[in-house]
Amino acid sequence: MLEICFFYSLSLFLFILVLSSRWGGGVLYLPFVSQILYPSSASSRRLRLLPWLLFRIEGGIVMSLSREREEAGRELHVLAVDDSSVDLAVIAMLLRSSKHRVTTVDSGKRALELLDLEPNVNMIITDYWMPEMTGYDLLKKIKESSALKEIPVVIMSSENVPNRINRCLEEGAEDFLLKPVRPSDVSRVCSRVI
């Protein structure tokens, strides 16, 4: 029975591999479930599911999940800061859809507290207008800190005010995005940081 299951799985894999290489270019994730019969006692047998083996087939080349994980190692950890829960949810969704890890906070003060606890932030995206501490003030504090000054900071605002934009860029902001933020804005900014 074991040989039949193995042969069936291998045949299916090779068939899909041939199809993939013939039409190539696409990405296909294949779950293979190997069921192995083994005796659990002298009188009975049970089915056990082995872990799913996932393969990515791209243009006929098989790449295992370990390589996928290596590629995922290039993901960014982004700290998103906005007092608007709606805007925060939108920017977090855009970043997560680009496969980045996102931590969200609702104020500049909380962002600084988090940065003290979480040193592995690769980029900060913050709203300009927030109570207590504006995004510009947060930018200044980050750039004044010897421990944080290398973290790229992106400012967002719904107001297109050239003086404000220039002031933020002169202070060291990586970019200034106008709301509503689009997926192309996120891609552009993240590609510079990676």
From TrEMBL:
CDD domains, A to Z: REC_typeA_ARR (cd17581)
Q: Where is the Response regulatory domain?
A: 77-194
Q: Is RNA-binding one of the keywords UniProt gives this record?
A: no
Q: Name one GO biological process term.
A: phosphorelay signal transduction system
Protein origin, superkingdom: Eukaryota
Read off the InterPro entries from this record.
ARR-like (IPR045279), CheY-like_superfamily (IPR011006), Sig_transdc_resp-reg_receiver (IPR001789)
Which UniProt keywords are listed? Cytokinin signaling pathway, Phosphoprotein, Transcription, Transcription regulation, Two-component regulatory system
Q: Which residues carry this modification: 4-aspartylphosphate?
A: 127
Keyword Transcription regulation listed: yes
Note the Pfam families from the entry.
Response_reg
Describe the function of this protein.
Functions as a response regulator involved in His-to-Asp phosphorelay signal transduction system. Phosphorylation of the Asp residue in the receiver domain activates the ability of the protein to promote the transcription of target genes. Type-A response regulators seem to act as negative regulators of the cytokinin signaling.
Task: Name the protein family.
Answer: Belongs to the ARR family. Type-A subfamily.
- Quote the protein name from its UniProt record: Two-component response regulator ORR5-like
Q: Which organism is it from?
A: Phoenix dactylifera (Date palm)
Gene name?
A: LOC103717294
